[in-house]
Amino acid sequence: MHEDNSAAGDETHRILTSLKKTGRTFAQALPVIAGMLLLTSLAHTLFAPQQFARLFGRHDGLDALLGTALGSIAAGPPLASYLLGGELRAGGVSLLAVTALVVSWVTVGLVQLPAEALFLGRRFAITRNLVAFVFTLAVAWLTVQTLRGFGASLP
Amino acid sequence: MKRQDAKSGYGRWWFLATVAALYTVCAALAPELALRALAHAWQALRHMLPVLALVFVLMVVFDLVLNPRRLAQQLGRPGGARGWLLALAAGILSAGPIYAWYPLLAELRGKGMRVSTAAVFLYARAIKLPLLPLLFHYFGTAYSVVLSLYLAGFALLSGLVMERISRSTESAD
């Protein structure tokens, strides 16, 4: 009985620790989430959706490149990229560019490059980021083409 | 790493402060526009709150189920297809900022972890299981599934490419 109580106590402690840890992670992400929400809302109000589309919509390839470049230099939790991507998409930016932004945000990290090079080697870090940059374009293109091929309605 | 952690911690607040400053300027020049932007942000937040709650629950569950250190140790062991699949799974399940994983990966590389396995792990981190509800919310189920499958496939491909490049540069040296 005593052992049962002890095991239950350990489990409660583990859950509480996990809740605290996740709460801390969330609290750390809070300024970024709030900032992204406010910034995208301000941009959405200041610029008509057509203006977003005009910044991108010249050529599919250039759109994807611009999206990838933006995602590569951006730093912040992936959650922020979904938020920004969702708003850009609602503003009329092509799915190709938005996908490129969301993918490069999490696979290419120019901001983290010095740290990656420090721990895993300069050659590894540069090559991996270059490969990820090229792959972003491929993933974005293939995702959009696959959805079109299957006749799925694009988000 | 401490310096970088501190820097990124302050960076978040600087970012929010900059956005707040932008709003202040906007409110001074065009108060009606600033209010409309705030109303839009509030509406977006209300749509997001249930999804964020689900993300929180999933993060707690993953944290309870997974032990990052044990996960990373498993990565250092096998080579071949099993090692790649393990790296893929570990990358998908790993949580926290990427720079938190660098020291552990460096340690494992020192103990013989392959270039390909490290590359697969780092690329697979693009798939965020706890954040999938948010991806569904913004882009729909079909898009989220297709994108995740491609990310998993390209994570393995990145391992293959990195291994090839590493071998060719080693032989050139």
Quaternary form: heterodimer
What best-fitting shape of chain B do the alpha-carbon axes yield? elongated
| Count of discrete domains of chain B | 2
Alpha-beta content class of chain A: mainly alpha
Count of alpha and pi helical runs of chain B? 8
Q: Give the % helix of chain B.
A: over 70%
Give unreliable regions of chain B as ranges: 1-7
Using only CA atoms, what is the Rg of chain B?
21 Å
Mean pLDDT of chain A: 83
Strand percentage of chain A lies at under 5%
Low-confidence spans of chain A: pLDDT under 50, at least 5 residues? Answer: none
* Residue share in helix of chain A: over 70%
Terminus-to-terminus distance of chain B: 31 Å
Strand tally of chain A: 0
Outline the fold blueprint.
The complex is a heterodimer of chains A (155) and B (173).
Chain A: H1 2-46, H2 49-56, H3 60-73, H4 78-90, H5 95-107, H6 113-120, H7 122-149
Helix pairs in contact in A: 1-4, 3-5, 3-7, 4-5, 5-7, 6-7
Chain B: H1 2-29, H2 31-65, H3 68-75, H4 80-93, H5 102-110, H6 115-124, H7 132-139, H8 141-172
Give a written overview of the molecule.
The complex is a heterodimer of chains A (155) and B (173). Chain A is mostly helical and 155 residues long. In chain A, 83% of the residues lie in helices and 0% in strands. Chain A is built from seven helices and no strands. Chain A has helices at residues 2-46, 49-56, 60-73, 78-90, 95-107, 113-120, 122-149. Chain A is extended, with a radius of gyration of 20 Å. Chain A starts with a helix and ends in a 6-residue tail after the last helix. The longest helix of chain B is centred in the first third of the chain and has 35 residues, at 31-65. Chain B has helices at 2-29, 31-65, 68-75, 80-93, 102-110, 115-124, 132-139, 141-172. In chain B, helix 2 (31-65) crosses helix 7 and helix 4 runs parallel beside helix 6. Chain B has eight helices and no strands. By secondary structure, chain B is mainly alpha-helical. The chains are: A mainly alpha (155), B mainly alpha (173). At the A-B interface, helix 1, helix 4, helix 5, helix 6 and helix 7 of A face helix 1, helix 2, helix 5, helix 6 and helix 7 of B.
